[in-house]
Design goal:
- The chain folds into 3 domains: 182 residues, MFS general substrate transporter like domains (Growth Hormone, Chain: A, Up-down Bundle); 55 residues; 242 residues, MFS general substrate transporter like domains (Growth Hormone, Chain: A).
- It has 17 helices and no strands.
- The radius of gyration is 23 Å and the shape is globular.
- α1 runs parallel beside α5, α12 runs antiparallel to α17 and α15 packs across α16.
- It is mostly helical.
Length: 506
Amino acid sequence: MTERAPARAGRREWIGLAAIAIPCVLYSMDLTVLNLALPAIAADLEPDAIELLWMVDIYGFLTAGFLILMGTLGDRIGRRRLLLIGSAAFALASLAAAFSTSAGMMIAARAAQGVAAATLAPSTLSLIRNMFLDDRQRTFAIGVWIACFSAGAALGPVVGGLLLSQFWWGSVFLINVPLMLSLLVIGPLFLPEYRDAEAGRLDLVSAVMSLAAVLLVIYGIKHAAEHGVDGVTLGAAAAGVLVGAGFLYRQRLLREPLLDLILFRRAAFAVPLAINVLKILVFVGIFFLVAQYLQLVLGFDALTAGLWIAPTGLVMIAASLAAPTLIRLVPPAPAIAAAFTVVTVSLILIATADGSFVRFYIGILLLPLGTAPVGTLTTDLVISSVPPRRAGMASGISETSFEFGGAIGIAILGSLSAAVYRTAMAGYPLDVPPATANAARTTLAAAVETAATLPGPAGAALLARARDAFVAGFETAAWIGAIIAIFIALLALTTMRGVKRPAAAH
């Protein structure tokens, strides 16, 4: 008997995909838009240094911590239902953030946004798994899904800058409300509901353990990036690893685990996840330094820097949408190797720019050109390699790999760059209070502030030395990124030779 081809998606599914685009764009916009609004928020709410840090970090922390839980919860209560609940919660949290009257209220609102955001990515990706059964259509839909996150990241600085130039800082949050409410109207009409009828009760102990493990490890990584490796870093990371080990052991004993460890035995699932982590490590780590380079070395203001970075988002969108064609023509292993050859070239251009802005800018445009198609391919491999009933869980795991990669990228490449900077600045003579001198020898931002307080030649000399030290650290990070990119290409060629292009699991 001939096997019937999967049904192709129609008008309803494509309209549903357009509806899914709304939360995907807003999810990534809210990761970047706060940075532009932060000075105005700080002037109005007057947070201390710790409160200011938590305003920025709490959103990403809680999003990362809740992704696996929310992906599995969607399998149990319904993916469309969870998406709509999360969208309503995101709108309410955005409203609270817009009208915050204290630092504590803003932190609480951002925390609520983070938890709500954790429902969005796994719900939307797992719905795509069920809406688009045809392999080619699903790959294209995932490319669109990836492109929406890229669009949000590209639009964040531009939209934020435009809103802040016309309205008060709360407008950057208020824009989320009507868009999320529109999803509540469109979603029930065009998005199908799907839940795993065989799923058992949610294991609350496992849920708490997974949340604690992810939060502790990511907190330790971020602390290392900001303050170096110290007792807090080691303690948080060790506690996270211990809780994570206990969580994994518990999953082996449960009949319906929160995380199905059998999935990791599949090369088409486990290897793309590892590549995701390494890919995001390189991308986020480098762009963390790019933003500082544009503002602190070249002297651009935040909006101008955002406008220079925005085209990289457009490159990501185009590359994500072109990925399905690449995937049809080339098997996964050589496709990933070719993409990371482009990434390697981009990082070598950055590392050898030597003051040439054109060479540097070509490098940062090539970086998303190489990484974006891989994001579409690896995500499609992960989602299509599991049965539909596990799509929510797989989506949560996939998104968590992105969050881990970003945190590790800032920690490793950011810390490496900072170490080179500190070495180059060690012993530099400064006629300022010791605390100020130590700060200037530690970060370029502090050196720029210190230079502004010194008389002409002394300030100019400090600025030149500090900028040269930062560039040296940036170049070192780019060379390390290039080595990681070569490793990813070799990893794909040696471990994925038997992996065929994405096809639905049954």
